[in-house]
Amino acid sequence: MRSRKVRFTELVDELGRLGDKPGPEAITALEDRLKQLDRELRSVTDKFERYDLGKLSLEAHTLLTAAHQRSVIALDIAESAHTRAVHDALHPNILSPQMREREELDIWDGFDR
């Protein structure tokens, strides 16, 4: 069986590799593993080992919180893009400033003078 320190280190490495848009399933699975390791941490009696594992646990919690925040931001961006697309579809006469690739903007060459 691997030591607690190795398991905490592996968890921290996995949390660091989640990327910019982590999925909720991945976050939940890693959160469950972290909770299990934190429960095991409570039973450690050696103060030096407990201190080292506590630092790793804190780092893992910090990375998990950051991953959760990135996930929420990615969902907010996707929702805003969807809302913008629906608005553009419902109001085709109003040009959206976010839609630079639309044909109307490519064809238009300025005011007639």
Topology, pairings included?
Elements: H1 4-16, H2 24-41, H3 47-90, H4 103-107
The low-confidence runs, each spanning 5 or more residues with pLDDT under 50, are none
Structural class by sheet pairing and helices: mainly alpha
Distance between the termini: 80 Å
Instruction: Please count the helical segments.
Output: 4
Strand content: under 5%
Number of domains: 1
What form results from the Cα inertia axes? rod-shaped
Q: Order of SSEs, N→C?
A: HHHH
Number of strands: 0
**Biggest sheet details:** none
Rg of Cα set: 24 Å
| Overall pLDDT confidence | 84
User: Which percent range fits the helix content?
Assistant: over 70%
What does this structure look like?
- The protein is mainly α.
- The protein has one domain (4-107).
- 71% of the residues lie in helices and 0% in strands.
- The chain is built from 4 helices and no strands.
- α1 runs parallel beside α3 (47-90) and α2 (24-41) packs antiparallel against α3 (47-90).
- The longest helix is centred in the middle third of the chain and has 44 residues, at 47-90.
- 6% of the residues are buried.
